[in-house]
Amino acid sequence: MQSLWQDVRYGLRWLTKSPGFAFTVVISLALGIGATTAAFSVIRAALLNPYPYKAADRIASILTQDNAGNADLLPMTGSQLRQLGNANAVEDVLGQQDWELSATGGDVPEDIRAVFLTANASSFFGVPALLGRGLIPSDAPAGQDAQPVAVVSYPFWQRRLGGSSDVIGKPLQLDHKNYTIVGVLPPRFAWEYGDVYLPLKLTNNPAQPLFVYIRLRPGTSLQAADAEFQSLFEQFARETPARYPQKFSTRTERLIDPYRRRLARTLYLLFGAVLALLFIGCANVSILMLARGVSRQHELAVRSALGASHLRILRQLLTESTVLSLGGALLGMLFTYFTVALIVKWLPIFLYPPEAAIEVNSSVLCFSIGLALLAGILSGLWPALQLTRREAGPAMQSSTHKIAGGVRGKRMHSVLIASQIAMTILLLTAAAAGTESFLRLTHADLGYDPHNVLVVEFPIHDNTYMSWNERAAYFERLRKSIETIPGVVSAGISSQSTPPASGWPETLEIMGKPNVESQHVLLHLVSPEYFSILRIPLIQGREWDEQETTQAARVAVINETMAREFWPNGDALGRAIRLPELKSEPPVRFAAPDADQWVEIAGVVADARNDGLANPPQAAVYLPYTAWLGVFPGILVRTTSSPLSMLHAVRLKVSSVDPNQQVAGDGAILEEFITHQPELGRERLVAVLLSGFALLAFALAHVGLYSVVSYSVAQRTNEFGIRIALGAQPSNVLRLVFASTSTSVGSGLAMGILLSEALSRLAARWTGASPHSSLVILGVTILLACTSISASFLPARRASSISPMEALRHE
Fold first, then answer.
1. pLDDT band at residue 507, thresholds of 50, 70 and 90?
2. Residue 405 CB-density burial (10 A; 0-12 exposed, 13-18 middle, 19+ buried)
3. Residue 409's closest CA among 386, 380, 381?
4. pLDDT tens, residue by residue, 160-184
């Protein structure tokens, strides 16, 4: 241990004599270690361990998937939930219902997201309350009404209750019903983005559906669970056939699986990028340490002559590289904090669990230290082996600055430089592809005009407007009231039809053609103003009018894609189609009379994005919104000025029609729906971070090439002096220096092009970019070639100006 401390002290003294060298090495490692640690921190928090819940890796939902591949989480009744809880694969089961409630206290009701949970919620989640308690079985005794108690979320406690510590036992009024606050949840408890959590009374009423989550028993595989659930859900389908497709299979999905599908490839791509950056940094350290060894060859030879073994010198050199790597880790942690904050800033919302706490913690620090030790050993091992290979006698006799290693050392230099350039090309081409993909999405043809359009949604309260006539009349009063606001051009009802991800898949039947179970279209329920508000042009036929809307006339408008797909001869007008699933499900949905019967296609409108920004428009059918009235409609409002400036006036109008009705959330500008699309956020993240990492790699590769050329010039000082003394021109020396790097640079460029081409299809799957972007690869190659020339120029110029006398004194 004492000798190890001697190595550390000696290494520190040696490094303080070469501050420029030490600073460059530490920076090279800090960038790689910091970026890699930040990426690990985000992956760990967002995908590997995002939840604070007990045994979160065993919490799952059960989806039903039809023959077309459409998967849904279907609701159950109370008795079905109990049967599911008795399954061998299930350890515990949780039932829930979501609803928007209103809280009073201002001039308009405030929207509150309420999550009703079965009374075993506390034991299911296993998360202790921050204050008070969670929901317990006595809050909803079997066969009795649920108690009027509420557990509030941390954000709601801070926002509405002022973070008061004496809130337990205080009243909270929701929909004019008084609840007693019994608990405050910790900050990371964000199940279903709830503001308040209320006890749920279990009933067997099919009109009060429950959404169910389970916790699998330890050791139960998803395949074994699916096998058991299939027969059980087939029984449920016989009990409530309207909710299930004719043929389906069950699929058990862990809580984290949807997020992993959306984000895992992107984060793993970024992790691969930072590993490439770390490799470039380690290669730089190896190059710099070999170059620095020129001035230490005599010193190491003397130590060897005085009795130091090769192993002892090797340990000394590895200790020095490890000290440098730990210094890089310390500086890299500062870079980690910055990079984590940057990634979180650009990480798309709703693509990772809201419970995830993305931060630098003890496990991240341990990862950083371990990574630093590994980087120190890997980057210092080869230089140390090279420096300890030379025999002491010849080195002392020559008194030269030349480093040991000869041809093998030069080969290693060439390999490191070629690898750096190849990795840099790979990162630059990936960054360019990501940027290209992001720009393509931002300039995508939407098919509609999102400017100056406000989107507001208003959830219908429980046990209100309990017939089709009442609900239809209420919606129309709301629409007409909002349309009278000064500055409002037009207002239209839109149910699940706000682009660019709009509509929901419904089974389609076409008169005169055989029924195909997998034949689906995207259903949009809208008022006729919808098309003029979004400026979607009419191509053929007509739209329905206000009177037809009031009567829920059986008339439809389809988009161009549907017309081409089903009637390629252009004869769609007058055809009859049927959507058999448009049935009443009170109190959630009320269907107009005969809504599930044949309707006539009256018009064809232009395509508008309805399946996100990255996908082409899907076949879509538009019906009067009165055909199928739900509990969460929206209103699109085109304004003459800033849409958000009209929000308060809209709230007042909604309250004037129904004093108990609130607007959900804070409203939104339609343009924000575009910026918040997951695919756009994902491409933005890839473009920004890959570009940043690629630029860092570009800078490190430039430093590495400059270092190796400088090292080569230092080795050949005597040779260049003699050549000049014998009549060689400076241009000849310049050519020699450039020629010495041309092999490594050329092979690096070739390797980088091959890697980029080989991985282009994988990058296309992850970034959405074109797999054959030859112009991008050509541009990056030219950039790297020019950079290599510039990095070699200063050492080459220095070599061409060496005087013969200086070269002889050097020897």
1. confident
2. buried
3. 386
4. 888 999 999 999 988 888 999 999 9
Strands (E), 576-654: 576-578, 590-591, 599-605, 620-624, 628-629, 634-639
Residue 508, domain member (yes or no): yes
Residue type, 706: Y
Tell me if 747 is assigned to some domain: no
**Residue where a domain terminates, one of 662, 692, 709:** 662
Distance CA 446, CA 553 (A): 29
Which pLDDT tens digit goes with each residue over 652-702?
898 899 888 888 877 789 998 888 888 888 888 888 888 899 998 888 888
pLDDT at 436 over 60: yes
Q: State how far the Cα of 581 lies from the Cα of 508, in Å rounded to an integer.
A: 9
Q: So what's the pLDDT on residue 746?
A: 86
Number of domain units in the chain = 2
Instruction: Write the pLDDT tens digit of every residue in 542-577.
Output: 999 999 999 999 999 999 999 999 999 999 999 999
Q: Return the pLDDT at 11.
A: 63
Regarding beta strands 177-184 and 149-152, do their DSSP bridges make them parallel or antiparallel, or are they unpaired? parallel
Six token digits for residue 528: 């006729």
Domain that holds residue 187: 59-254
Residue 302 included in any domain? no
Q: Which value, in Å, is the radius of gyration of the alpha carbons in the chain?
A: 34
CA 559 vs. chain centroid, Å, equals: 31
pLDDT band at 470 (very low <50, low <70, confident <90, very high): very high
User: Are the C-beta atoms of 487 and 646 separated by less than 8 Å?
Assistant: yes
pLDDT at 404: 40
Asked whether the beta carbons of 517 and 247 are under 8 A apart, the reply is: yes
Asked if the structure places residue 82 within a domain, the reply is yes
Sign of the dihedral through C-alpha 292, 297, 299, 304: positive
Instruction: Transcribe 9-43 into DSSP letters.
Output: HHHHHHHHT-HHHHHHHHHHHHHHHHHHHHHHHHH
pLDDT at res. 351: 84
Q: How far is CA 259 from CA 249, 266, 729, in A?
A: 22, 11, 64
Measure CA of the first residue to CA of the last residue in the chain; give whole Å.
40
Identify the DSSP state of 246: S
Beta-ladder partners of 491? 637
In whole angstroms, give the CA distance from residue 91 to residue 368.
38
How far, in whole angstroms, is CA 172 from its chain's centroid? 36
- In this structure, the strands spanning 509-510 and 576-578 are antiparallel
Which residue shows structure tokens 């894609």?
A: 561
Does residue 727 register a pLDDT over 80?
A: no
What are the Cα distances from residue 196, in Å, to 191, 302, 559? 10, 75, 41
Task: Return d(Cα 632, Cα 647) in angstroms, integer.
Answer: 18
Return the higher-pLDDT residue of 691 and 518. 691
Residue 521 in contact with residue 619, Cβ under 8 Å? yes
Cα angle, residue 325 at apex, residues 321 and 329 outer, rounded to 5°: 170
Query: 254, 287, 321 — which closes off a domain?
Result: 254
Centre a 10 Å sphere on the Cβ of residue 669 and count the other Cβ atoms it contains. 19
